[in-house]
Amino acid sequence: MATPAHWLAGARPRTLPAAVAPVLAGTGVAAYDGDAVWWKALLALVVSLALQVAVNYANDYSDGVRGTDDERVGPLRLVGSGLASPGAVKRAAFLAFGVAAAAGLVLAATTAWWLVPVGAACVLAAWFYTGGSKPYGYLGLGEVMVFVFFGLVAVVGTTYVQTEELADSGWPALLAGTGVGAIACALLVANNLRDIPTDRVAGKLTLAVRLGDRRTRVLYAALVLVAVAALAGLAALTTWWALLGLVFLAPTVPALRTVLGGAGGPGLIPVLQQTGVAELLWAAGVFGGLVVGG
Predict the structure, then answer these.
(1) How far from each other are the two terminal CA atoms of the chain, in whole angstroms?
(2) DSSP string spanning 102-159?
């Protein structure tokens, strides 16, 4: 029987910075324009956190019933370990989706109803990452969807629900979304790099499996460079205070050293934490810089 501690571990709290980061960055862009609406920012955070927990439980369920997690190196999986039944984990995922949907409906009702189909697309993308008969995460498309939904959509959406327009904040929001999305992708790349041997055996053709070990490591470094470039572009369009986001390099440098140094398996687990912290620092630095420089 899974204990509360097991359920907490199954929610994978170390991935939650990836949910906080886009809301911080998007709110920073709104604050720079003087349009921050803090209660809407809080609701956006609820949506983002609930979706992150939902996708973690959904992946646990879908990978578990497929047997992908039978030989797992990384964090605890509830279904794969046999601690919880597939049905219980599926219900936990749907409960988290419900929380995200409820908070999202409030935002749509107070902003624009066309946000409802956007939210529905986010839920479908979260479920079909590893769910359904042809999950796109098994086809090498996971990074693309993470960039779109946990980067561009999350950041631009957070900005829009507060400003209710993108005439002035559109490009800064897109650049902020690009930076956050790039690091979110790097987090997934590191995770999939670690799992190449077991994913290949399980038939899970992630982008890392398709690219191979060496090119996946190069991709991780390239995504870090994209995050730096996006930060420079954001600073050029807004205020150079946004370069406070460069603090993200503090955990990124040792992570790069590990990835490019050829570490594998359990040796890549610290990289996941370092990359998650880097994403949060990138967004927090941008948020602080835009608030100060606005």
Answers:
(1) 52
(2) HHHHHHHHHS-TTHHHHHHHHHHHHHTTT-SSS-GGGGT-HHHHHHIIIIIIHHHHHH
**What range does the domain containing 173 cover?**
17-293
Per the CB < 8 A criterion, the answer to whether 63 and 137 are in contact is no
User: Has residue 1 been placed in a domain?
Assistant: no
Helix or strand (DSSP H, E) at 87: helix 86-110
| Any domain includes 281 | yes
Assess if residue 174 is contained within a domain: yes
Q: How many domains does the chain have?
A: 1
Whole-angstrom distance, CA of residue 137 vs CA of residue 120: 18
Query: Whole-structure pTM over 0.70, yes or no?
Result: yes
DSSP 166-217: -TTTHHHHHHHHHHHHHHHHHHHHHHHHHTHHHHHHHT---HHHHH-HHHHH
pLDDT in tens, 74-113: 567 888 888 889 999 999 999 999 999 999 999 999 999 9
